[in-house]
Specification:
- This protein is 28% helix and 50% strand.
- The protein has 136 residues and is α+β, with helices and mostly antiparallel strands.
- The chain has one domain: Nuclear Transport Factor 2, Chain: A.
- Strands 2-1-6-5-4-3 form a six-stranded mixed sheet.
- Strand 3 and strand 4 form a beta hairpin.
- The mean pLDDT is 92.
């Protein structure tokens, strides 16, 4: 169980690192693709509506934001809990994120991450997130 918990923590660390970028270091999309199950999904809750992305449509969404001037984004886990039973895990991951360089807003939010152990590796099945508030 301890090995699985460490492996899940590493998947989450790599997940955040994969979507973080600046002008000199683009997101690592190939790594993000490897972390997700081939049919994995991402869900963005906007309270009034929800958006659903495959890994590829999420990549397109971020790349479009980058083309429209988003020069940096950094996200890191600040607190977490993992519930594990056999080959299924759920991680509640609190995070902070910043975008747009040193003058960018700091956001805090929560990711709900579901994983499954597939062929000996933990893969993300789904990730749902909401940004409940934003502070500068």
């Amino acid at each position: 169980m301890e090995n699985d918990l460490r492996a899940i923590e590493e998947v989450v660390r790599l997940l955040y690192a994969s979507v973080s970028f600046d002008a000199n270091n683009p997101p690592t999309w190939d790594r993000l693709r490897r972390l997700f199950h081939p049919r994995g999904l991402l869900f963005r809750n906007l309270r009034e509506t929800q958006e659903v992305y495959s890994v590829e449509t999420f990549i397109q969404w971020v790349n479009k934001a980058r083309q429209q001037g988003l020069v940096s984004f950094f996200e890191e886990e600040t607190d977490a809990s993992t519930h594990l039973m056999g080959g299924i895990a759920h991680r509640t991951s609190h995070y902070k994120a910043s975008s747009g360089g040193s003058s960018g807003a700091i956001q805090v939010g929560i990711n709900s991450i579901q994983m499954m152990k597939c062929d000996g590796e933990w893969k993300v099945l789904s990730l749902a997130w909401e940004v409940p508030g934003c502070k500068s």
